[in-house]
Amino acid sequence: MKIGIIGAGIAGLAAAYDLSTKGHKVTVYEAAPFIGGQASTIPVGGAPLERGYHHLFTNDKAILDLMDDLGIGEAMKWYPSRVGTYTSGKVYKTTTALDLLRFGAIPFLDRIKLGLFALKVGRIKDWRCLEDETADYWLRERLGGKAYEKVWAPLLKGKFGRYFDQIGMPWFWSKIQTRFASRQGIRGREMLGYPDGSFDTILDKLEADIRSRDGKIHISTPVEKVEVVDGVAKALIAKSPDGEVIREEVDTILSTVPSFSFPDLVELPDDYKKRLTDVHYLAAVVVVLELDQPLTSFYWMNIADPDVPFLGLIEHTNMLPKEWYGGRNLLYLTNYLDRNDDVYKMSEAELLDLYLPHLTKFNPKFDRSWIKKVHYNALSAAQPIIGTNYSKAIPDHRTPVKKLYLANTTQIYPEDRGTNYSIRMGRELAQMIISDEQQSWSNWK
Question: Which helix (H) or strand (E) holds 20?
């Protein structure tokens, strides 16, 4: 079977790998000049670093299984995480359960309530019972008090902006489940995974294995149209880096483009198209600073303060050795924003002018002279807004066009989008495509 895949993100590559190992001829088309999508890297301090912060949790089974299949399982290493929370003008250590008891930003009884509430959510096994309610409503009604006001309300608003009160409760449930599973020992210390050599270790091995089986990966080659004949996907129309139009006939097509882009490639029935366009995406803006000294002692800083103009502060080299990056301390400043937001439209220099004055809140000694280099990245489709009862509205992977499949982050549910779940989805789609082809062949016979 000849299969065309639109997008060389981690889902598309995982699908291409499994399909090629089963003897199918795979061609991957990627619009960007690199593979890996949100897991792709840039050179920083002489080593590859993800454009957006990446780490794994101990229950991220899909990516761990894939690494084992690729023969690189030993590359995954585990590190203790150090978490802080900034609220009420102060940084608090919130790494362990004991830290939570010392969390002076809220009254002692609210600290107890916050911890017990997380345990309660962690014990819920069926997320379907949560689908009718938003995370904001569920938290206000069942947690409330200063624990909601000082912690979860600003975190929800910081991540989702004006959409904060539309997010379905299964999103919150999945976050709690993931973090509980990644905590080890009686102290509940969170362990996070990161592969030696960055996520390029996985991407490079995927690419090599796909090519070794006569698969092809074309970068800087956007697909412009899916050709359909009598309701069946027949060919891909793409444009090469030099502007040449490429038409490739295939037996099956898997697209991994965002939902809002998919209708531009192919004509779809109104009801399916509505399922795609009803999902709104937030964009992401990420600034990576190379510093000559650390800003804090934490890896992950939760920002629970509306006066801080960025959502997250992730100090990569507070978990990974700075020696990997020429001795530089690496700091991510990240934001999820509506694509119409003025901050999303800012230049790198404008963002720095907006962000940097706030870094003294985390370290009063911070000075702009600490910055030795800046890296900037923006992504237009980073975080889908998934509301209530989404299981009834999620677009099917099997599109109304025969032999045309869709796999993107709006179809990861109830979990939130992420590298592990994208890999799981890509491998599931590979199996779905193979099974459908076998069934079709069986019916024909």
Answer: helix 10-21
Among the listed residues 420, 396, 392, 416, the one whose alpha carbon sits nearest the alpha carbon of residue 407: 396
List all residues 6 or more positions away from 89 whose beta carbon is below 8 Å from its beta carbon.
Answer: 305, 361
Angle between the N-to-C axes of helices 10-21 and 419-444, in degrees from 0 to 180, rounded to the nearest 10: 40
Which pLDDT score, from 0 to 100, does residue 119 have? 87
Other CB atoms within a 10 A radius of the CB of residue 240 amount to 13
Instruction: Output the CA–CA distances (angstroms, integers) from residue 241 to 247, 410, 440, in the order listed.
Output: 14, 29, 36
Distance (Å, rounded) from C-alpha 180 to C-alpha 118? Answer: 9
Q: % helix / strand / coil in the chain, to the nearest 5?
A: 40, 25, 35
What are the boundaries of each domain within the chain? 2-38+199-279+389-444, 80-192, 280-384
The architecture that CATH gives domain 280-384 is: Alpha-Beta Complex (3.90)
Give the span between the Cα atoms of 77 and 95, in whole angstroms. 19
Tokens standing for 354?
């907006």
The per-residue pLDDT for range 92-105, each reduced to its tens digit, is: 999 888 898 999 99
**Whole-angstrom distance, CA of residue 136 vs CA of residue 165:** 5
pLDDT-derived band at 175 (thresholds 50, 70, 90) equals: confident
Look at strands 404-406 and 371-384 and give their pairing. unpaired
CATH entry 3.50.50.60 includes domain 2-38+199-279+389-444: yes
Give residue 184's pLDDT: 55
Q: Report how far residue 104's alpha carbon sits from residue 89's, in angstroms, rounded to the nearest whole number.
A: 12
Question: How would DSSP label each residue in 25-92?
Answer: EEEEE-SSSSSBGGG-EEEETTEEEESS---EETT-HHHHHHHHHHT-GGGEEEEE--EEEEETTEEE
Q: Fold for 80-192, please state it.
A: protoporphyrinogen ix oxidase, domain 3 (1.10.3110)
Q: Would you put residue 118 in left (φ > 0), alpha (ψ -120 to 50) or beta?
A: alpha
Both tokens of residue 253? 């097509």
Cα first-last separation, the chain: 17
Name the burial class of residue 443, with classes exposed (0-12), middle (13-18) and buried (19+) by CB atoms within 10 angstroms of its CB.
exposed
pTM: 0.94
Q: Which H/E stretch holds residue 436? A: helix 419-444
Establish whether the linkage from the previous residue to 414 is cis, with ω within 30° of 0. yes
Element (H, E) at 175: helix 169-181
